[in-house]
Amino acid sequence: MSFTAETDSHARLMDGVYRHQRHIYDITRKFYLLGRDRLIADLALRNEDTVLELGCGTGRNLSLAAARYPGARFFGIDISGEMLATARKRMQREHIDGIVTLAEGDAAGFDAQVLFGGSRFDRVFLSYAVSMIPPWREAIHAGLDAVAPGGTLHIVDFGRQEHLPSAFRWVLRRWLAAFHVEPRDALRGFLESECQRRGASLRFESLFGGYAVMARIAVS
How is the beta sheet containing 73-78 ordered, strand by strand? Predict the structure, then answer.
């Protein structure tokens, strides 16, 4: 199967999964997508900074970031047209569609210049998206390529649950799999390798007994 065919197939899958769930997504996910608000705080944006979220979903994170940093400009892409429909309604309802630009695209292979008229951003982040993107390594590559010199890439996602009871880990992973979500146990090693290759620096933290992980990569 070609990369384009895989992208189209994943887009259809995500639209199917979230066609109805998108209406209750934010209400339910706040109880277990831990660390998202801390990521937004860690962006530490200045006026005129540009921010790109890969896998922006319903726009929840972009909305909160725009409220916290009204002087910045925000961009988001998602492979699901259904989720983007909800995100666009949110931006209009909150009157922030003037500083938030959304586009349909694949986080693992996108042309930011075509989508947004610019190829580099001061901050790029993925919030519980790495575990949902089958070619997750390619998505991180694309995210790092989109970071402007002196900028940062931020990730928060499910961790390895290494300090939590094995029964909890088993149940959690079975439940996540039902939603096509897979924690990336190899994430830290991959990020360390990428930072070494690119001459970037990594800050990696395990949160809540390994339930979640948070990473920050500074690009020189």
Answer: 100-104, 73-78, 50-54, 121-127, 147-158, 212-218, 201-207
